Amino acid sequence: MGHCHEEVWFSLLLELFLLASQIVLPNATIASVTSTNDPDLWFALRGGLNRFGIVTKFTLKARPQKKVQFGTIYYTEQYCRDFFEAVADFTNYNDDPKAALIPTLNALPGGIKTGILYFFYDSPTPPPASVWANFTAIPHINVTISPQSFVQTAYPTETLISNTYGRRQLFSTTTFEPVTRELAGAIYDIVSNSFTSRSLQPGFLTGSFALEPIDQFMLAQHAAAGPAAFATPNRGGAQLLGELNYIWADSVSDGIWSKQTHDDIAALQKAAMQLGQQEATPWVYPPYASVDQPVQQIYSGTLERLRRVQRRVDVEGVFRNLTGGFNI
Questions:
Q1: Which of 294, 287, 244, 234 has its CA nearest to residue 268?
Q2: Residue 305 to residues 48, 55, 224, 230, 291: CA-CA distances in angstroms?
Q3: Three-class secondary structure assignment of 164-202
Q4: Helices then strands (H, E): number in the chain?
Q5: DSSP-assigned states of every residue in 84-111
Q6: Are 293 and 172 in contact (CB under 8 A)?
Q7: Are 230 and 12 in contact (CB under 8 A)?
Q8: What's the pTM value of the predicted model, to 2 decimals?
Q9: How many CA atoms lie within 13 A of 17 on its CB side?
Q10: How far is the CA of 185 from the CAs of 124, 173, 235, 275, in angstroms?
C-alpha cells in the first residue's frame, strides 16, 4: 500500500498499523507474532515485506469509517508549476491534521500535461476555506469536493488500474528536504521537461509524478508507532515524497524505460542537493521503490537487524530470493 490519507493517524506504512501476525515460517511451523513474544520478528514484519515466511493472518489498528470530504481540482500545464509550489507551502504550514492531499503531474502521448490534485478531509463537514486556499487561488479547470464514503475515495485508483491492465509499468521514488518553493519549482521543471521528451517516444502511454507531503503530523505518528523495519529518518522538518511512474506498450522497451526512470530520479536527487539537501542518497519509500534502488536506502538504519532476523528464521535461505520484496 502506498502513501494514504490515514497515515496522519497511524504511520507512513500500512504494515506499521500491525498489532499481530500469524506466519508460516520456512521450517513449516506456524507462529503468532506480537511485540512481546517475538519483538525481533514483529519488528521485521513491520515493513520488511515477505522475506521471513508466509503471513496467513494479521491484526491491524483500525478507525471508524465515517463520511469524508473528497474531490479533485485540475490545472492546465501553464499553472502546474504554481501548483507544485503551493504543495511546498501546504507541507510546511498546514496545521490541520484532518487535511491531506495527493498532487500529480500527468502526461499523455504528444506531451499533453495536466495537474491533478486529490483533496481529502477527514470529516463529513467541509474544512475551513483557508485549508485549500492556496490551491483554489490558482486558475484551474474544474474543482469538485463532496462528502463521500471512504470506499468511494478509492474509485480514481480503481479506474486507473483497470485502464492500465496488461501494460508495462515501472515505479521509482525519492524524497526531498528541506521543503521550499524553490525546490518544488525545480522538481516541476525537471519532471515536466522529461515528460515532454519521453512522451514523444514510441510505446509511451502515460507518465505520472506525484509530489506527496510528509508533514509534521505524519512524522510524529510514524515515530510513535514503535520499532519497525521501515524507520523514516526524522530530522525535525517536513519532507516531500516523489513518486515517478511510466507506463508503456510492450516488453521490447523495458530496458529503455528502466534507464529513463533511473535517469529522472538521479536528476531530481542532483537538483535537491544543489538546493540544500544534505543526503546524496535519501531514504526510499518501500511501496514506490524500483528493483534497482539500493536496499540500504529503503531500510536506512535497520538493515543489519533485518538481516539477523531473516537468518534466524530462515536458516536455509528459502525466502531470500523469491519474487517480491527486496533482497536483504
A1: 244
A2: 11, 20, 20, 11, 21
A3: HCCCEEEEEEEEECCCCHHHHHHHHHHHHHHHHHHCCCC
A4: 9, 10
A5: HHHHHHHHHH---TTEEEEEEEEEETTT
A6: yes
A7: yes
A8: 0.90
A9: 16
A10: 33, 18, 23, 11
- Range list of H helices, the chain: 39-45, 80-93, 133-136, 155-164, 181-198, 216-224, 254-274, 295-298, 303-313
Give the strand order in the sheet containing 30-33: 30-33, 18-24, 54-60
- Residue 139, preceding peptide bond in cis (omega within 30° of 0): no
Q: Which of 244, 181, 186, 177 is nearest to 216 (CA)?
A: 177
Residue with the three cell numbers 490515514: 6
Judge whether 177 and 238 are in contact, CB under 8 Å. Answer: yes
- Going 138 to 141 to 146 to 151, the CA torsion angle's sign is negative
pLDDT 10s digits, 117-173: 998 898 889 899 899 999 999 999 988 887 887 677 666 555 555 566 778 999 999
User: Grid coordinates representing 305?
Assistant: 537487524
Report helix, strand or coil for 156: helix
Q: Which of 3-12, 89-98, 133-142, 207-216 has the lowest mean pLDDT?
A: 3-12
